[in-house]
Write a structure and sequence with these properties.
The complex is a heterotrimer of chains A (about 550), B (about 375) and C (about 400). Chain A has about 550 residues and is α+β, with helices and mostly antiparallel strands. Chain A has 16 helices and 12 strands. Chain B is mostly helical and about 375 residues long. Chain B has one domain: Amino acid/polyamine transporter I (Up-down Bundle). Chain B contains 13 helices and 2 strands. Chain B has a two-stranded antiparallel sheet. In chain B, strand 1 (about 260) and strand 2 (about 265) form a beta hairpin. Chain C has 2 domains: about 25-225, no CATH class; about 230-390, 2-Layer Sandwich (GMP Synthetase, Chain A, domain 3), CATH 3.30.300. In chain C, the strands form 2 sheets. In chain C, strands 1, 2, 3, 4, 5, 6, 7, 8 and 9 form a 9-stranded mixed β-sheet that branches. A 4-stranded mixed β-sheet of chain C has the order 10-11-12-13, sandwiched between helices. In chain C, a hairpin with a 6-residue loop joins strand 1 and strand 2. The radius of gyration of chain C is 26 Å and the shape is globular. The chains are: A alpha+beta (about 550), B mainly alpha (about 375), C alpha/beta (about 400). Chains in contact: A-B, A-C, B-C. The interface of B and C includes residues 124 and 307 of B.
Chain lengths: ~550, ~375, ~400
């Protein structure tokens, strides 16, 4: 018996060792490092061989060998990845000039056809090209959608930008739709996104720094800021934090967010995001730094303060009164969404004396047939609600609606009638659910907090909730985002900035930039006394 | 080397002192036993008494900018005597924190959740304070004005809601209290809400501008005293002659709010702001305790000893009194013996010796 | 540093888990008490306590669908030597502890009140959960019966009683004495406690409850009663008259004019003259409107108004004096004059008056000024019968 066991164990050890070895060789053969490090050879066929080798003979790799120049005495090759490039452009602006126009050249004029730069200068009718000498560079360009022109006898190659991007148009974003305000939103193309911001801020101070992150994905990431307004320390910090990311791939800006956060274990996000150019532009104007990532419409912005969660871009486009009321409502909604079930449990289980008599009697009447304790009841309802939400989000909108109707109406109604849930509980959870959508930037933190407070309320009632609130408050007060206190301007207090927190003051009143992000710039963003008033009569 | 590196500014100090003084609002009760309906006068008198005493604290701190009291003691009294006097401070901080922790325990045990074990409240509250202290002085100072603003609003609101049933003839007859009880009462009020701010001697060192501290501390004291006064006036005006029978007058008076049968049970709010205020005060005390112990042990940071200290404090507060009656009796009577020398005289004497020995001169030159 | 945070979080979690749920009581375990009645029991040393418990599941159903015989409340009664003992005894019947924070009325039967209330009051003040704003009442008969008289519009008798007392202002014929007010009067050296009276009236098949008048206590023992007018006499002085009906004879004595009190303000100033006499200066400002008249004459004339106002003042003075006379018989200072003097003449109070205030109370002199004003005559300028009168 022991023999069998030892054999088995030996077998597994051997297997594990083998797997490891296999894994290593596999990754090793995928990118032959030795070839990639080489410069471009004079021999065209060797170059083609190398490229094919590196690209593992991928089926969408197109290699077009051709002769050109006077009497077609030169041979060259155009290499591109057919799935990434625009073929019409290649034909029209690369192959056509090379194969037909060059025929008309005289003999002596084609002597220097080996000089690849000359081809680019005199023959190609395309705007963007670059000269490359390394094979590594060649592969990178090839993969990002360029066509590579190789000429026999030249140690240089031309990378011609013939990229074709499959992308959505500029559409209205789903997550931040507005009634009043620009409808455009970012899309997955970083070029488009930068252009959208450029169009909002036509100022030479708008700096765009590009870098590539991701060993395999080579994702383009751009740091965008206004040189005159952004604090250079914050920009440096962003640069530093971005450059230390070493990862296989960046598929979405969320990856970046998690690498540059100040408090990775905090449930509160210290990096804000948006898919609306106007919002990003307004943040840039307050001295923030935006981080654009290719392949996602979500743009990151740092530093973030807590109060931003309650602001919406539309607040600034509609008149201040409604906006102010909405602000306050959002704050109330946030508290409702985190405290709703917890307060219900604390009140009905621990502090019944605080409920007015009539209300208590009707609540008790509703709870009479419910077999569960209040905490379990609340937990059940919350979990069912979160499942409903999750199911609704992932489904096509038509089915999603059905789900929500089945969930909310049928299930809720039936559960109450069956005596599983008390009607008040349904009201509480429904209110909580609706409230949690009013403050979308804090949805994840409010969901966690809701369960946290519910747990505390179930154990220690009001005392538990109080302690939880105090801990949350202290946690928030200790958070910083890129050096800016998270609760600014409430804690530490900054009176002049408070007019954009609980209310939204008229725009002509908010004539200062937020001072938390300040360094040595002039905070005045508009002249004072811009309040509209009737023209003074001159006498 | 100072164990704290965070800096706070004088405005935050103002709010800290206000919040700290307000943290003892419930304890006005202790004075009610002695001065009955004249407690408001005792509060006014204690503000007057406390101002010079607390000025001596600030003066000591401004003479040694950037230093906390443990360092000051070492400089003024030398390493051995200085350590002994520092131990007296630590003893006071430890006891005061345990009393405040006990206050929360009794608040919940008596008024809110009578069936729960007291030790639960003590432990949970102390750990919450430890969490706040662990975050450092800066976050605490940063939220101080929020805490003060909330308590001001609630106090004002309760006052307005009760104004309908207040009877200001309840203050009459004036001067119906024997002088000795009056002095006793003034002492209790001076010592507990006001002079416990001796804990700020551990905090003054973290100020960015120590020179300006005096003005802000005194104003903080006065505005905190204003809240105490408001509470004393409210309770007497509302409860009249019954003011002496209740365990907690604040609770009983707010329980009387009954407006349209909807705005009732406002004692909830007393519970809420009491918890917040005592949390703030206790956190500052725990901070003072942790930093002073770390300083005296020569540690670089107080974080390693924070949790052990909290555990000791929980045990201390669980065993320090047997019942609220015991608590009240001790505070009113025994308090004189253990805390009076420290609160009224020690900082003043330290200051005096420093002046005589012209002490901080070399230090100041080094800093500048 | 992160380490400490994790430790603190762990400790917090451990603390909470260690203690589990603290003292939560689910709603279905609650026996919500909305009224308590206290009667004397057969055994002279003990009392019979009736707690009105809400029968939650029957509430709101009694009219439709539900069993018509089952009541939305349950009067659980038990006997015990003290209140707290009795309240705990009831758990033998209810299975759960009584939940008293919502108890809105505490009713003592007259014979209990006559033996002294103090020993039956302490619990209600000491209990954490009781509201100081609960009303205290004295039942003419059995307190248990009062709590059992099912009202026609309300579903719960105790709530009904609460509303009856709460709306005393319509007549000002009783006074809403809360536990706080009662204990405040009980503590005072001079002031005598009062409490409204309640009784069951048989109206055909139905039993109705009715509140009117006040019970007067000496220390904690009930010794006297005030009728409706005497009660209002007391209320004038302590400035608690909210509204009410004043019936005033017309100047020609041909009928009465009925006034609705709009606002009333009473102020008392004690004075001790040099020769030791105590004079209470009572100043009452009263505004009323003419709501009804039984004569045909046109009352809405300035000169008649003047006379009517004088008559009205006379009615008020009579009410006050009747209340004083009634209370002076037993020497119980229901107005709190003693405390007023204490507040103003602190020294003299302690030296001369405190000891035998009861006797001195009987010798107080009054200086009553009533300033009545008729502010409106409602919709009529002239009575419909004016023609007949000529």
């Amino acid at each position: 018996m022991f023999g069998y066991l030892t054999r088995k164990i030996n077998y597994y050890f051997l297997k594990a060792a083998n797997d490891k070895a296999n894994f290593r060789t596999n990754t090793g053969s995928a990118t032959p490092v030795s070839i990639i490090a080489e410069p471009i050879d004079k021999d065209l066929s060797k170059n083609i061989e190398n490229v094919k080798n590196v690209m593992s003979n991928s089926c969408d790799l197109a290699v077009h060998e051709f002769c050109f120049g006077y009497n077609r005495k030169h041979t060259g090759a155009l290499i591109y990845i057919s799935s990434l490039t625009d073929r019409g452009e290649i034909h029209k602006h690369v192959l056509n000039p090379l194969m037909y126009d060059s025929l008309m050249l005289k003999n002596n004029e084609t002597e220097n056809m080996f000089d690849i730069e000359d081809i680019g200068r005199s023959l190609l009718s395309i705007t963007e090209y670059s000269v490359i000498i390394q094979l590594k560079e060649l592969i990178e360009k090839l993969l990002s959608g360029s066509s590579i022109l190789l000429v026999h006898g030249s140690t240089k190659a031309l990378a011609i930008n013939t990229i074709k991007v499959e992308t959505r148009g500029v559409q209205e974003p789903d997550t931040e739709s507005v009634v009043r305000g620009p409808r455009e939103g970012f899309n997955e193309n970083i070029k488009t996104n930068i252009s959208l911001i450029r169009r909002k801020l036509k100022d030479p101070a708008l700096c765009i720094e590009e870098m590539t992150i991701g060993e395999l994905s080579n994702t383009k990431v751009a740091i965008v800021y206004l040189k005159t307004l952004a604090n250079p320390k914050i920009v440096d910090e962003v640069r530093k934090r971005l450059s230390r990311i070493k990862i296989d791939a960046i598929l979405e800006s969320g990856y970046i967010e998690e690498f540059i956060e100040d408090a990775p274990y905090s449930i509160f996000s210290t990096v804000s995001n948006s898919e609306k150019p106007d919002k990003v532009a307004s943040k840039l104007l307050e001295g923030r730094v935006a981080i654009l990532v290719d392949g996602t419409p979500f743009v990151l912005m740092v530093p973030m303060i807590f109060a931003e969660s309650f602001q919406s871009s539309e607040d600034y486009y509609s008149r201040p009164f409604l906006s102010s009321i909405l602000r306050i409502l959002r704050i109330i909604a946030f508290f409702l969404s985190i405290l709703g079930p917890a307060l219900y449990v604390a009140l009905t289980v621990f502090h019944q004396e605080l409920i007015p008599t009539q209300l208590l009697i009707s609540v008790a009447a509703g709870h009479e047939k419910v077999p569960f304790p209040a905490i379990l009841e609340a937990l059940l309802m919350l979990i069912v609600f979160d499942i409903l939400r999750e199911a609704g989000v992932r489904l096509p909108s038509a089915i999603g609606q059905t789900i929500s109707i089945v969930g909310a109406l049928v299930l809720g109604q039936a559960a109450v009638e069956a005596g599983l849930i008390s009607p008040i509980m349904v009201i509480v959870v429904a209110t909580t659910a609706i409230s949690s959508f009013a403050v979308t930037p804090q949805t994840d933190s409010s969901t966690v907090l809701r369960y946290f407070y519910l747990f505390l309320a179930g154990i220690a009632g009001g005392f538990g909730v109080m302690m939880g609130m105090l801990i949350t408050l202290m946690h928030l007060a200790s958070l910083r985002s890129f050096g800016v206190p998270y609760l600014w301007p409430v804690a530490p207090l900054n009176f002049s900035a408070l007019k954009d927190v609980f209310i939204r003051a008229p725009i002509w009143k908010m004539d200062k930039r937020p001072s938390a992000l300040k360094w040595d710039v002039d905070l005045q963003r508009q002249s004072r006394n811009l309040r509209p008033s009737p023209e003074k009569q001159e006498q | 080397m100072n164990v704290e590196r965070g800096k706070i500014n004088v405005t935050q100090l103002f709010f800290c002192v206000t919040g700290f003084v307000e943290g003892s609002v419930l304890l006005v009760n202790f004075a009610v036993d002695m001065t009955k309906s004249q407690t408001w006068m005792a509060v006014l008198a204690s503000i007057a008494v406390a101002i010079p005493v607390i000025y001596s604290y600030v003066a000591l701190a401004t003479r040694f900018p950037g230093l906390n009291v443990i360092q000051i003691n070492d400089i003024v009294y030398g390493p051995i005597l200085g350590k002994l006097i520092s131990l007296y401070y630590i003893f006071f901080f430890a006891l005061t924190f345990s009393f405040n922790n006990r206050d929360i325990g009794e608040l919940y045990k008596i008024f809110i959740m009578p069936d729960a074990p007291m030790i639960f409240f003590l432990a949970a509250f102390a750990v919450t304070c430890a969490y706040a202290v662990h975050k450092g002085l800066e976050p605490l100072a940063r939220v101080s004005h929020i805490i003060v603003a909330i308590s001001f609003t609630v106090m004002l609101l309760i006052f307005l809601l009760l104004i309908d049933i207040m009877d200001f003839s309840n203050f009459l007859p004036l001067f119906d209290v024997p002088l000795i009880s009056f002095i006793h009462s003034v002492h209790v009020i001076t010592a507990i809400p006001f002079c416990e701010s001796i804990a700020f001697l551990m905090i003054f060192g973290s100020l960015d501008k120590t020179e300006k501290a005096a003005k802000y501390v005194i104003w903080g004291l006065i505005s905190g005293g204003f809240i105490l006064l408001n509470v004393a006036v409210r309770n007497t005006a509302v409860l009249g002659n019954t003011v002496t029978i209740w365990t907690s007058t604040s609770f009983e008076s707010t329980r009387l709010i009954d407006i349209g049968t909807v705005l009732t049970r406002m004692d909830l709010w007393i519970g809420v702001i009491q918890t917040i205020l005592i949390f703030f005060k206790a956190s500052l005390l725990l901070y003072a305790l942790a930093t002073s112990v770390a300083q005296i042990l020569g540690l670089k940071s107080y974080l390693p000893i924070l949790l052990p200290l909290t555990a000791i404090e929980v045990i201390l507060s669980a065993t320090v009194y047997q019942s609220p009656v015991d608590h009240a009796m001790t505070t009113q009577n025994a308090g004189i013996f253990y805390s009076t020398p420290l609160l009224y005289f020690t900082p003043a004497i330290t200051l005096l010796i420093a002046v005589i020995r012209k002490l901080p001169k070399s230090k100041r030159r080094k800093r500048s | 540093m992160k380490n400490t945070a994790v430790k603190i979080a762990t400790i917090l979690l451990m603390i909470t888990l260690l203690f589990g749920c603290l003292d939560g009581r689910e709603l279905s375990e609650l026996e919500i008490v909305i009224g308590i009645g206290i009667d004397s029991a057969d055994d002279p040393d003990s009392i019979k306590l009736t707690a009105q418990v809400v029968n939650v599941s029957q509430l709101g159903l009694s009219g439709s669908g539900g069993d018509p015989d089952s009541k939305p409340y349950w009067n659980a009664a038990t006997t015990g030597t003290t209140i707290f003992e009795a309240i705990r005894q009831i758990t033998h019947k209810t299975g759960n502890r009584l939940f008293v924070p919502h108890c809105e009325v505490v009713i003592y039967s007259k014979d209990v009140a006559k033996q002294g209330l103090y020993k039956h009051l302490d619990f209600f003040l000491r209990a954490i959960e009781m509201r100081l704003t609960s009303f205290i009442l004295i039942a003419e008969g059995k307190a248990g019966e009062v709590l059992d008289a099912k009202p026609q519009t309300e579903e719960l008798p105790a709530v009904n009683i609460y509303n009856l007392v709460k709306s005393y202002g319509f007549t000002s014929h009783l006074y809403d004495v809360t536990l706080k007010e009662f204990s405040s009067r009980l503590i005072s050296e001079a002031t005598a406690p009062v409490a409204p009276l309640i009784k069951v009236v048989q109206e055909g098949e139905n039993k109705d409850v009715q509140v009117m008048g006040l019970a007067v206590f000496k220390e904690d023992k009930m010794i006297d009663e005030l009728n409706m007018d005497e009660t209002r006499g007391l209320l004038w002085v302590i400035n608690e008259v909210k509204s009410g009906v004043l019936i005033v004879p017309t100047p020609e004595e041909s009928g009465v004019a009925v006034f609705e009190i709009e606002t009333a303000k009473g102020k008392v100033k004690p004075e001790i003259t040099d020769d030791g006499k105590i004079i209470m200066h009572i100043d009452i400002k009263l505004q009323a409107n003419l709501s009804e008249q039984t004569t045909a004459e046109k009352l809405a004339r300035p000169e008649i108004f003047e006379k009517l106002q004088d008559n009205m003042s006379e009615v008020v003075v009579q009410e006050i004096m009747s209340a004083y006379e009634k209370s002076s018989k037993t020497g119980s200072d229901i107005f709190g004059f003693g405390d007023m003097i204490h507040k103003k003449y602190n020294k003299k109070w302690h030296e001369q008056l405190e000891e035998d205030w009861e006797e001195i109370y009987k010798t107080i002199e009054f200086d009553i000024k009533v300033d009545s004003k008729i502010t409106k005559t409602n919709l009529l300028k002239n009575p419909v019968t004016q023609k007949l009168g000529g």
